[in-house]
Amino acid sequence: MTTIVPPIGISISGIQSLETAKVTIKNDAGIAFIFNQKNPKYIDPSKANKISEVVSKNVRTCGIFVDPSDEEITQCLNEIDLDCIQLNGNESKDRVEFINNWFSYYPLEAHLGPDQNLPSKYKKARKVKRQIIKAIPVTTKKDLDKISIYENIADGLLYNTNNSEIVDWSIFSELFKWENPLSNEHIINERPPRFYGIISGKINKENIASVLKTGTKSIDISSGLENEMGEISTEKINSLFKYLHNNELLHPLNR
Questions:
Q1: For the CA atoms of the chain, what is the radius of gyration?
Q2: What is the DSSP letter of 233?
Q3: Residue 67: how many other CB atoms lie within 10 Å
Q4: Among 78, 82, 72, 71, which Cα is nearest to 15's?
Q5: Residue 234 pLDDT
Q6: C or N: which end of the chain has fewer Cβ atoms within 10 Å?
Q7: pLDDT grade, residue 195 (50/70/90)?
Q8: Phi and psi for 107 in degrees, rounded to 5?
């Protein structure tokens, strides 16, 4: 009998060094940079760009912002070409819609003044849409009601459980209803954005199996991989992925 295990997309947020980025990439995870200066994992966009230029071009890079101004996003994108902008603040529906309309294809000629050229980072106008993700803080099932505010405005949603010490992961189970929980079979046009939401929080090898039981295909991890200094630990990254592989939680297996 062959059991198909759904491939899980994992990203590591709070990357601040090339070493950590390389270990993340080696484990086939995406990388996310934090551009909120109040966060201890903040990284300058120019440094983030140097890291992204060294690692594989096939790696998805995300930038995390909290209630950013237009100038803040513009200055960041002039330094680093992000695949995704994640909004972790109290951005309103209208604000998320504006950011999606204005920055998802930045830079275009429409963004430039009469005598302006494209930023030096870009050789030509962007052709591929940059994804805009809205984070929703989730402590109880009631918080999932906020989904309806953003799901037709943002390209994707992230369910942030970082502020909850004890998470009842079962509250997410109704969101991720696949045709077959052990396959990727689905009709893409019939699935609402909430279905592709990312679960984020204090996730580590002690609780990740419970998270996966929700049926989610995407996980974002940061604080669950911190060392005593509050930095992302390469040892914990390797340990997590070793656990996932040893327990056959990432790849197809034969029985």
A1: 18
A2: P
A3: 13
A4: 82
A5: 96
A6: N
A7: low
A8: -95, 140
Of 157-166, 195-204, 233-242, give the range with the top mean pLDDT. 233-242
Taken in order 236, 241, 243, 246, the sign of the CA dihedral is negative
Separation between Cα atoms, residue 200 and residue 66, nearest integer Å: 16
State the pTM of this model.
0.87
Residue 60 parent element (H or E): none
According to DSSP, the β-strands at 218-221 and 9-13 are parallel
Give residue for tokens 């109704």: 174
Q: Which two structure tokens, joined as six digits, stand for 80?
A: 């680093």
Label residue 85 exposed, middle or buried (CB < 10 Å: 0-12, 13-18, 19+): buried
Above pLDDT 70, what percent of the chain? Answer: 86
pLDDT of residue 248: 77
ω before 107 within 30° of 0 (cis)? Answer: yes
Going from the N-terminus, what domains does the chain have, and what CATH number goes with each? 2-254 (3.20.20.70)
- The CB-based long-range contact list for 100-105 (8 Å cut-off, 24+ gap) reads 100/132, 100/153, 100/154, 100/155, 102/70, 103/73, 103/74, 103/77, 103/130, 103/132, 104/129, 104/130, 104/131, 104/132, 104/155, 105/129, 105/130
**Section 42-59 average pLDDT:** 91
Query: Is residue 182 very low, low, confident or very high in pLDDT (cuts 50, 70, 90)?
Result: very low
210 or 248, greater pLDDT: 210
